[in-house]
Amino acid sequence: MAEDKAARSADLARTYYNAADVDGFYAHAWGGEDIHFGLYSDTGETIGVASRRTVERLAAKAGDALGSGSTVLDMGSGYGGAARRLAGQFGCHVVALNISEVQNRRHRALNAERGLDGLIEVVTGSFQAVPAPDGTFDVVWSQDALCHSGDRPSALREATRVLKPGGHLVFTDIMAAEEASAPELRPLTERLPVTNFATPGFYDEQLRTLGLSDVGFEELSDHMLTHYERLIEEVRSPAPALVNAVSAAYLDRLGASLPQVAAACRKGHLKWGIFHGCRT
């Protein structure tokens, strides 16, 4: 049953991110490098700058595990913004595991343009069966992607399995507040192909059950609200590139759905932040 649910969720995510409208939205409203939430120094900051700051904050959690010769698994790598920054800044080898071949093609092309294709291996696949032996990676990394897993305990077991002893697991995810109800979460479940969300308490319990040490969570939910407010601005006054990349109907749907998600954030129904733990 869990395997069937995980397979259905993977199919939903693949179909969603391969869709032309969705790809156009993320490539031109979100910036085409990252499709995760940003950390904002002020509300007027661009999405791209804030998104890069999130990568820097996660990298700081991994500390000296990132360096020349270290290995990183990026679970749900999207267009590869984080993978390129890790490879370019630290010289580490990154395996970028992602379900969407549409995104993966763009990812590979950008890697080649930056001269980083020798350090980044883009692999099409799901979280439930990471194509790597036990104890392969110094760091397992994921940004706002585990919400698409239909079996998150299995995905976290895989992430832990492929970590070296002493390796770091660091990730962000879109989560529900502990007390949030299904109707309160509906604006986001309707926008994304996700039927339910984990909570911070769920992830904390799972990481401790898996035996990770130094488990911590840095809550940064206010930045998720800021990010959605910035996206609303991008959609209300769309750049020509965005208008040309998506259908008018899809742009109208975004104009209706994004404010509803922002309202759910404002009411505290949605949570976001950085989890970190080490394999003993």
Structure description:
The protein has a 7-stranded mixed β-sheet with strand order 3-2-1-4-5-7-6, sandwiched between helices. Helix 6 links the parallel strand 4 and strand 5. The model has no long low-confidence stretch (mean pLDDT 95). With 280 residues, the protein is an alpha/beta fold. It is built from 11 helices and 7 strands. The chain is globular. Helix 7 packs antiparallel against helix 11 and helix 9 (221-236) packs antiparallel against helix 11.
Which of globular, elongated, flat, extended, rod-shaped describes the shape? globular
Placed side by side, the strands forming the largest sheet appear as: 3-2-1-4-5-7-6
Major beta sheet summary: 7 strands, mixed
Order of helices and strands: HHHEHEHEEHEHHEHHHE
- SSE-based structural type: alpha/beta
| Helical residue percent band | 40-55%
| Average pLDDT for all residues | 95
Using only C-alpha atoms, the radius of gyration works out to 18 Å
- Which regions contain 5 or more consecutive residues with pLDDT less than 50? none
Distance between the termini: 31 Å
Strand content: 15-25%
Our count of helices gives 11
Using DSSP, what is the number of strands? Answer: 7
